[in-house]
Design brief:
This protein is an alpha/beta fold. Helices cover about 55% and strands about 10% of the residues.
């Protein structure tokens, strides 16, 4: 009788589904294990790059996506923009190893619902996911304070203080890869673009940052990378 009454009881609430996009298999697996242990969440799919993600989310119809910025081919911000053209209301949490002071505002301008750095404790990913599913925007306390300060300081417009804010999203991606010590051909292969296109981006970056040579660009990018790691 007890078993019958249990089977006739109220059905358990349906779990919210999560789709993960990251080009590191171990990180995807770790996130999936973390999420699938939760009583209210379940991973409905994974992808390592943008094109596969776009095809898969149409079929899996997740409640939320977790997207890494650094992907092979189109990066996470490009993927986010493509998602918004087809699924304008799909919640997206950007996950990244890169400094939020540089990338978080860009992600929000591209209509991300939150930004979290990989260095944060894994439990915070769950906090961010539930926050976004609850209709809120998720940012770290540090980044929230920075944006609030910019908002209340009417004489300061957000993101204009940083030289890097003059770069387009793709230029910033090329700049970041230069800072990782990648050569022109390596950048072209990773982003799936031609060497000539990379060189064009490099020229634009040098012009915007007032750098006289490719060597200065490399030094500047490496220094920016070092500074980012020490933030």
């Amino acid at each position: 009788m007890a078993e019958m009454s249990k089977s006739r009881g109220v059905a358990e609430p349906k779990k919210k589904t999560v789709f993960i996009v990251d080009d590191h298999p171990l990180l995807r697996k770790g996130l999936a294990l973390l999420i699938n242990r939760e009583p209210d969440l379940a991973v409905c799919g994974e992808a390592e790059e943008a094109q596969r993600a776009m095809k898969a989310i149409t079929a899996s119809k997740p409640d939320i996506m977790i997207v890494d910025i650094s992907l092979s081919g189109p990066d996470g911000l490009d993927l986010l923009k493509n998602i918004r053209t087809i699924h304008p209301d799909l919640p997206v949490l950007i996950l990244s190893m890169h400094d939020e002071s540089i990338y978080a505002e860009r992600a929000l301008r591209a209509r991300a619902n939150g930004y979290i750095m990989k260095q944060e404790a894994t439990e915070k990913v769950l906090t961010a996911v539930r926050c976004i599913l609850g209709g809120e925007i998720y940012l770290s306390e540090r980044m929230s304070r920075k944006l609030l300060h910019q908002y209340i300081s009417s004489s300061v417009r957000p993101a204009t203080n940083s030289e890097l804010s003059t770069l387009s999203d793709r230029e910033l991606e090329v700049f970041r890869l230069i800072g990782e010590g990648r050569g022109t051909r390596q950048i072209a292969d990773k982003l799936h673009i031609s060497i000539k296109t990379v060189e064009t981006y490099q020229a634009h970056i040098k012009n915007k940052l007032s750098l006289a040579s490719g060597r200065e660009l490399v030094q500047y990018a490496i220094q920016a990378k070092i500074s980012e790691k020490t933030v």
